[in-house]
Amino acid sequence: MKTKKMSWFCERTVPGKRYGKMKHCFLIEKLIFKGKSPYQKILIFDNSVYGKVFVLDDIVQLSESDEFIYHEMLTHPFLMLHPNPKKFLIIGGGDGGTLRECLKYNPDEIFMVDIDKKVIELAKQYLTFVNQGAFNDKRLRLFHEDGKNFMKRHKDYFDMVIIDGGDPIGPSVSLFAYKFYQDIFAALKEDGIASFQIGSFLDTPLIKSSFTNLKKVFPHVSMVRLDMPSYHCGDYCFMGASKKYDFDKFNPKDLEERFGQMKKESVFKYYSPEIHQASRVIPEIFKVK
Ligand code: SAM
Asked: What's the CA-to-centroid distance between 209 and ligand 1, angstroms?
């Protein structure tokens, strides 16, 4: 009897020190979508360990088993610091997970700028466990262009900007540029806060350059440490930058109060005040001097 050919997705081209020197593979137990948009290769498949897995340009973006860690930690450790965020901007985030988390703050409006319309279309169809209907929210204003260009057109407007791009390859490269950080600073209100998807602590040069560039632009910059099991890369880093509020002086009582209020209406599967504090403990080896 002919044995069924097993098909595998192998991640092998993550930029940084691991590029071409490692691969980790996921059995494709059910292929859901495989194709290309004008910007990137797109793959979605089912795997019984991780659930649905979403891949762009051969790099795992998220899996059903752990996307909430990523999206809760890219938003709340930074957003909680703002006393009353009302105007949000998300660059990237086409799967809708970050949008879902921002709606927990009951904003007045959320701008979302993802370069790739195809990703949103596929997310609405196949990644509903991530966006959970968030794309239908009336406060959403959706744009399809390079976030780098969009940012230039806005001054002193947003309370919160979240950069939810991919790794520094392909269309996401521009989202790691110093000039882009300056444009974000200009687009934020005088007490605005920004958060950034950065990468693995394995990639010291990326962590160092991102932190150093943000420190040149913003008075307050903070890192959080998290683990994304489906990334297979050890500790992962997100960063926050603030024009006015100091992450290191965030009163734990205010955090408890704000979180307590939100918990009445929203579900948090990973983030909590304890996780907030714990994620800010950065081992000496990972600190940027
Ligand atoms: N939320 C994802 C996760 O959990 O890993 C993070 C990656 S998200 C899928 C990356 C998104 O950024 C993609 O939808 C991609 O189309 C978008 N993107 C990449 N470069 C961009 C740019 N320069 N401007 C706007 N969107 C961009």
From this structure: 20
Question: Which pTM value belongs to this model?
Answer: 0.97
Selecting among 66, 95, 164, 183, the annotated active-site residue is 164
Quickly state the pLDDT bin for 1 (edges 50, 70, 90). Answer: low
Q: How far is the CA of 93 from the centre of ligand 1 (A)?
A: 5
- Tell me, yes or no, whether 78 lies in a domain: yes
Domain coverage including residue 34: 8-62
23 and 102 share a domain? no
Q: Which atom of ligand 1 is nearest to the CA of 94?
A: 14
Helix intervals (H) in the chain: 67-79, 97-102, 117-126, 128-131, 147-152, 178-187, 204-217, 252-263, 273-279
The total of structural domains in the chain comes to 2
Classify 132 as helix, strand or coil: coil
Ligand 1 atom with the shortest distance to the CA of 54: 9
The CATH code of the domain that includes 222 is 3.40.50.150
Q: What confidence tens digit (pLDDT) does each residue in 76-126 have?
A: 999 999 999 999 999 999 999 999 999 999 999 999 999 999 999 999 999
